[in-house]
Amino acid sequence: MATDKKSKLKARLPRGLVDRGPGEIAATQAMIDKIRAVYELYGFEPVETPAIEYTDALGKFLPDQDRPNEGVFSFQDDDEQWLSLRYDLTAPLARHVAENFQNIALPYRSYRFGFVFRNEKPGPGRFRQFMQFDADTVGSASPAADAEICMMAADTMEALGIPRGSYVVKVNNRKVLDGVLEAIGLGGAENAGRRLTVLRAIDKLDRLCIEGVRLLLGEGRKDESGDFTKGAGLGADDIDAVINSIAPTAASSAATSPTSSLKAESASFSVSGGEAILRGPEADILGYISNRRQYFPDSKAYQTGLEELAQIAALCVSSGYDQDRIRVDPTVVRGLEYYTGPVFEVELLLDTKDEKGRPVRFGSVGGGGRYDGLVSRFRGEPVPATGFSIGVSRLQAALALIGEIDTTPAPGPVVVTVFDKARLADYQAMAATLRKAGIRAELYLGNPKNMGNQLKYADRRRSPCVVIQGSNEKDHASGTPHVIVKDLLLGAELAKLDKDREDYLARQEEAQALVPEADLVAAVRKVLQRHGIG
RNA sequence: GCAGCUGUAGCUCAGUUGGUUAGAGCGCCUGACUGUGGAUCAGGAGGUCGGUGGUUCGAGUCCACCCAGCUGUACCA
After folding, report:
1. C-alpha to C-alpha distance for A495 and A504, rounded to whole angstroms
2. CA–CA gap between residue A146 and residue A343 (Å, rounded)
3. Backbone angles phi, psi at A410, to 5 degrees
């Protein structure tokens, strides 16, 4: 082993990865339980797949020489076949369903959670390993399947303690945008690249506002660091057509203010064009959709997309899910070359500050959509599917910041201190007695040379109390051996005001009970009850 | 990937126009206060100043390159 300082190994975690302690693990577990309960309620059943798949099953091309492992972590098996760590839970599910097609009753509702891996630049709230919780319905092309996913997403947010109004499930349909792109002459395989550029620009609306998107649709945009992003190179009329399709109220006006993105969002749930507004949310959203139908009447994709949206909206509304929970939002893009119809996104609307007092936007904590091509890749026949994933890690960070997650560490075990090294067996027996009574307990395993260190240790362990037995207690005047049960939490309270040692020690005496050894369990229970530790 | 900013003790940071043995606070370790967390007091450990090369009599300080981190941007199934 290397012992000199120069050659010693530096302990370090690769960037974008985190270790997680007991508090975070407990919080994650609590979230998972809540999510699972909602999914089970909707009739979904668990299925688990491994973290590693054949690279081609994930739909990625083999890593090439220039940019190996772009986006995914990949490596070669003994037989030289490429394997990858999964980057989501949907593609592996598609593989699972295709591989076990005979044994699965369609439509198949399933859920799973686990870590996924992305080899990308990490950032605040973005990691290279993070947890997703995924649910999918495979084998149904019905908009009812999509609507159900949306309602389930809304229920899940509320089960997690996010109040109604602090989140929104946004729904859009890729066919609508496809129709618009087709109408402005970007149809066909030869325009795939420009279509992507347009979709990416739209996806940035929430950050860049209307004007930024306009630039990206046209020549391009320079950001504040001076970096230039090339645009889609559309003409002015085409840009207007695209902007109009995602934000009708902003299309004709030269929106430049930072609030223009808000206008775009509000357009998604209000009827534009002065049309008579019927009462109630149902009329509102369906009215909006029917209003949109007047554009691109010849585009089949556009009209089909709106029809599907109308059906999803109607289904949600008829089940009581109004626009305070689920909304149609024409700016949602997601999964550029993945989703084939409806797309969903769950956004947190919380207004919070980080440790440095800067405002934080959580944005999307979950998303999904219909992916009719993903299973059929493996089979000759079409297999429609729709699903939804929650970013558990990101959502947990958000919940922690708004105080919805209890971050105070759990209390530690009772610590049995070692006063006399020769009597280790006796102390060990006390710990065993406590454990038999169902009380978390441990024997002090460090160097027991003085009591101060042992108490300091117990304090840092967050122990509610310690057990002490020295010769004074062992040889108690009554003839029966006694023990001291010292309440550390109470002791900390009592000690606050005193600054001289005599007072301090006197106060410490108050926080401890001298009881016969036979009453050890009862005395410890009393302390636990005092502090509400079950 | 591109751009900007930043790298000094475990942590947060000082360190003057380049000038002796690079400092502080907190934390950590040892001890004192009869067998008790805190407070107090007395000691102690810990840094080739991110790395390499250069300019200079002399570099933590100036220059070049590299590495790492942060922020923005691009990509993001």
Report:
1. 6
2. 9
3. -65, 150
Q: What's the pLDDT score for residue A65? A: 47
CA–CA distances in Å: residue A186 to residues A138, A177, A303: 31, 11, 17
How far CA A150 is from CA of A118, A337, A376, in Å, comes to: 26, 21, 23
Give the C-alpha separation, A267 to A317, whole Å.
19
Nucleotide nearest to A494 (CA to C1'): B38
Cα-based angle A521, A527, A528 (whole degrees, multiple of 5): 85
Q: What is the pLDDT of residues A250-280, one digit of tens each?
A: 444 333 333 333 333 333 333 332 222 333 4
Residue nearest to nucleotide B68 (CA to C1'): A15
Residues in contact with A3: Cβ distance below 8 Å, sequence separation at least 6, in sequence order: none
Taking the CA atoms of A292, A296, A302 and A304 in sequence, report the sign of the dihedral they define: positive
Cα–Cα dist A365/A128, whole Å:
16
Give the end-to-end CA distance of chain A in Å, rounded to a whole number.
46
Does A245 have pLDDT greater than 90?
no
- Find the nucleotide nearest A119 (Cα to C1′): B76
> By three-state DSSP, how is residue A422 classified?
helix
Amino acid at A384: P
Q: How far apart are CA A52 and CA A344, in angstroms?
A: 27
pLDDT tens string A324-347: 899 988 888 887 678 899 999 999
Q: Which nucleotide is nearest to A475 (CA to C1')?
A: B35
Window 339-368 of chain A: CB closer than 7 A to strand B: 339
- Nearest residue to nucleotide B74, by CA–C1' distance, is A229
- Indicate yes or no: strand B within 7 A of the C-beta of A223: yes
Strand B proximity: list residues 450-509 of A with CB under 7 Å: 450-453, 455-456, 459, 468, 470-473, 484, 486-492, 495, 498-501, 504-505, 508
| Predicted complex ipTM | 0.85
The nt closest to A371 (CA vs C1′) is B77
Please write down the HEC assignment for all residues of A121-157.
CCECCECCEEEEEEEEEECCCCHHHHHHHHHHHHHHH
pTM for this prediction: 0.87
The reply to whether A23 has its C-beta less than 7 Å from any atom of strand B is: no
Are A338 and A280 a contacting pair, CB within 8 Å? no
Q: Could you identify the residue whose CA is nearest to the C1' atom of nucleotide B69?
A: A15
Residue with tokens 């889609």: A232
> Which of A35, A17, A13, A21 is closest to A392 using CA atoms?
A35
Backbone angles phi, psi at A360, to 5 degrees: -115, 130
Cβ of A102 less than 7 A from strand B: no
